[in-house]
């Protein structure tokens, strides 16, 4: 079986974004709003602990995902991701 991802990092970035896109867009009936906030803040805290090189790599991957995205709402989510999740130096 051949992977459609060029690296494990790329595959995990795609999976992370998919989960966060779901959590961010969940209605109250799908997910408790307080729990959703905890998940989103937890990820922001985790990525704030990445090295500068790791944050740059993830920012680049998310940027490439945004460029390839055809859904305008998801594209906007991806474009806002680096700042919203603390990937930019000093953003968190």
Provide a descriptive summary of the structure in words.
Helix content is 70%, strand content 0%. It is mostly helical and 92 residues long. The N and C termini lie far apart (39 Å).
Strand content: under 5%
**What is the overall shape?**
globular
The quaternary state of the protein chains shown equals single chain
Low confidence ranges: none
Taking all Cα atoms into account, the compactness measure Rg is 13 Å
The ordered H/E elements are: HHHH
Taking the sheet with the most strands, its summary is: none
Compute the number of helices. 4
Overall pLDDT metric? 89
Q: What distance lies between the first and last C-alpha atoms, to the nearest angstrom?
A: 39 Å
Assign a percent range to the helix content: 55-70%
- Structural class of the secondary structure composition? mainly alpha
How would you describe this structure in keywords?
about 90 residues; mainly alpha; 4 helices; about 70% helix; about 0% strand; globular
Topology:
Layout: H1 8-25, H2 33-48, H3 52-68, H4 72-84
Briefly say what this structure is:
The chain is an all-alpha fold and 92 residues long. Helix content is 70%, strand content 0%. Helix 1 packs across helix 3 and helix 3 packs antiparallel against helix 4.
């Amino acid at each position: 079986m051949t992977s459609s991802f060029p690296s494990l990092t790329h595959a995990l970035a795609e999976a992370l974004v998919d989960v966060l896109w779901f959590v961010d867009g969940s209605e109250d009936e799908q997910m408790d709003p307080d729990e959703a906030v905890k998940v989103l803040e937890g990820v922001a805290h985790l990525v704030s602990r990445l090295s500068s090189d790791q944050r740059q790599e993830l920012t680049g991957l998310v940027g490439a995902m945004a460029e390839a995205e055809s859904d305008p709402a998801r594209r906007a989510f991806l474009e806002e991701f680096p700042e919203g999740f603390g990937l930019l130096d000093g953003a968190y």
